[in-house]
Write a structure and sequence with these properties.
- The chain has a single domain, classed as ApaG domain (Immunoglobulin-like, Sandwich).
- It contains no helices and nine strands.
- It is mostly beta strands.
- Helix content is 0%, strand content 70%.
- This is Co2+/Mg2+ efflux protein ApaG.
């Protein structure tokens, strides 16, 4: 698990390998990840958007950005946490993801970015 705190918002990420399959005659490696967003600040905040950089061992880079996470824009009271799971496909058995969440302080109406720590995606059969 990797963790990072930015402006009182703690991000924790756990990953797992889900398997391989073929898509368009190319092998794909499926990975899942679970993110917990914990509001350790004293402010009421809301997640508005996310931006990811996904990189695989073949140096393919994909940028993914959009509103909310899995179709939701959770509001977090101080001390609250929100957990969700998602996944990605890579063209190689190794890779990494990083990015940020755009949050808004609902008391001051100021937006700020919260770093998502870089986390590795590794297929266990490909490791030493």
């Amino acid at each position: 698990m990797v963790q990072q705190v930015t402006k009182g918002i703690k991000i924790s990420v756990e990953t797992h390998f889900e398997g391989t399959f073929y898509k368009d005659y190319k092998i794909q490696y499926a990975f899942g990840y679970t993110v917990t967003i914990e509001n350790q600040s004293k402010d009421l905040v809301q997640l508005e958007a996310r931006a990811w950089t996904i990189l695989d061992a073949l140096d393919h880079e994909k940028i993914v950005a959009g509103e909310g996470v899995i179709g939701k824009k959770p509001i977090l009271q101080p001390g609250d946490s929100y957990t969700y799971s998602s996944g990605c496909l890579l063209g190689a058995p190794f890779g990494a993801m990083s990015g940020y969440y755009k949050m808004i302080n609902l008391e001051t109406h100021k937006s700020f970015n919260v770093a998502i720590p870089t986390f590795r995606l590794n297929a266990p059969f490909a490791m030493n």
